[in-house]
Write a structure and sequence with these properties.
Helices cover 25% and strands 36% of the residues. It contains 2 helices and 8 strands. Helix 1 packs antiparallel against helix 2. The two termini are 15 Å apart.
Length: 115
């Protein structure tokens, strides 16, 4: 797959404890992105953060949280990312989880696989 130049960065903010049918939401999103042929997805686990409820989630030893912030990042062409948006909406609706989704411009400099 060739991916270079102007693209879109889809960022999905959710919690580590968010689940659907017993599976973590971030795993479902990554699996569905792969099934739809998107260029790639990365899951980032935050050490601290807060969301719409303003509740702090942290990895500090004295305040151990089991619901740390998770960000799923997906970069691909605008068309492929926008066609994936209904999947993201469906996952959030069916799970009843809260979160935030952003879409940004991304200039792809290099996209290759290793040897």
């Amino acid at each position: 797959m060739k991916l270079e130049g102007e693209g879109k960065l889809l960022r999905i903010f959710l919690g580590e404890a968010d689940r659907l049918d017993g599976k973590p939401l971030y795993e479902l999103i990554v699996t569905k992105a792969r099934e739809q042929g998107l260029a790639g997805a990365t899951v980032l686990r935050g050490v601290e953060g807060f969301g719409a409820r303003s509740r702090i989630h942290t990895a500090k030893i004295l305040r151990l949280s089991e619901d740390l912030p998770i960000v799923v990042e997906i970069v691909d062409t605008e068309g492929k990312v926008k066609s994936f948006m209904p999947v993201v909406d469906d996952v959030f609706q069916r799970s009843g989880s809260g979160g935030m989704v952003t879409l940004e411009r991304a200039e792809v400099i290099r996209y290759t696989h290793g040897k």
